[in-house]
Amino acid sequence: MNILITGGAGFIGSHLCDALLQQPEYRITVLDNLSLGRLDNIEHLIGTEPRFKFEEVDILDTPALERVFAEGRFDMVFHLAANSDIAISHTKPEVDLESTFRTTFQVLNMMRIHGVKRLAFASTSAIYGNPQNQKLTESFGPLLPVSHYGAGKLASEAFISSFVENYGIQAWIVRFPNVVGERATHGAIFDFIRKAQSESADLEVLGDGNQNKPYVYVKDLVQAVLFVWNNTSASINLFNLGVDSRTRVSKMAEIVLEELGSNKEIRYTGGAQGWVGDVPEFEYDLSKIHALGWKASLSSDEAVRKSVQEIIKLQGLVSKK
C-alpha cells in the first residue's frame, strides 16, 4: 500500500511514520515544507529505509503537489500538515487560512484528480470552541471555534464531508486533544523546559495555572489513529481521541521543575486564558473510542511526566534531578 503523510517530518507525523513502517506492506512518502517539521525527526529513515521517501514540498505549490501525486499513486493519505501553533495566528490570521485550511483543500482536490479514495485527517478539540462545563461528544454543537486554528480545522472537516459525498472518498476524522511527547517544537511543556533552563529567576506561566485539559502521549495518539483506521469502515468515521483524565497547567509546571531538579518559583501572569484563543478547560467524552476497543496506556499526568523526561533527554539538557 502506498501512503502519503503530509506534515510527516513534524512532531506527530514523524511518530506516525515510525509506526506505519513497522508493517512491511506499507510504503511511505512524506511531504513537508519544514516550516514546523524537522529533518532530525526522520533522519533515521532517510536513506536507510527503502520503503520511505521524503519530499520537501509546500502543499500550496500546486505543480509540485501534482507531481508528488502523479508519481506516488497513493492508496491512502494521512493529512497532518497544518499550522499547529495556535497562539501565533492571533497576530497573523492568514497563517491558518493558508496552512490549516487551504492545505486541506489542496490535498482533497489532488485526491479527486488522481482518484485517491481514502483520507485520515488530523482534526482538533479546538473546533468545539469554549463550551464551559460540558463534556464533549462527537455530536456536540453548535461548533463555535475561538481560535483561527479551530476555524481552519472546522472548515477543513466541512470540505472533507462534501468531498466524501461528491467524489466517493472515505474519511477518518480524528479530533486530537493536547498532544505531548518527544520531538515537540512548541507548546506548554516545551516552553516551560526552556524557561526553567533560562537565567530567569522564576518560571513564568501564562494565565492563572488553573487551565485544565487532557494531555495524550504522542505514541498513544498514533496508535489510536491507526486503531480507528483499521477498525472502522463507514464513509465518514469521526472520533474524539484522548485520555479520560486531565492535568492543570500548574501541575505541569511543577512536573517540569521536579524533573529538572529546579527550585525556581512559579510566577503566574493571571487571567483564565494563557493567550487569546486559548480554551482554558475542556473534557472529552471518550465513550465512542472506548467502545471500539481502544484506551490510552498513560493518564494525562503520566503523559506529561514522560514527555518532560523524553524532551530533556532528546534535547541534551542537564537534569539536576
TrEMBL record:
<dbReference type="InterPro" id="IPR036291">
    <property type="entry name" value="NAD(P)-bd_dom_sf"/>
</dbReference>
<comment type="similarity">
    <text>Belongs to the NAD(P)-dependent epimerase/dehydratase family.</text>
</comment>
<feature type="domain" description="NAD-dependent epimerase/dehydratase">
    <location>
        <begin position="3"/>
        <end position="242"/>
    </location>
</feature>
<dbReference type="InterPro" id="IPR001509">
    <property type="entry name" value="Epimerase_deHydtase"/>
</dbReference>
<protein>
    <submittedName>
        <fullName>UDP-glucose 4-epimerase</fullName>
    </submittedName>
</protein>
<dbReference type="Pfam" id="PF01370">
    <property type="entry name" value="Epimerase"/>
</dbReference>
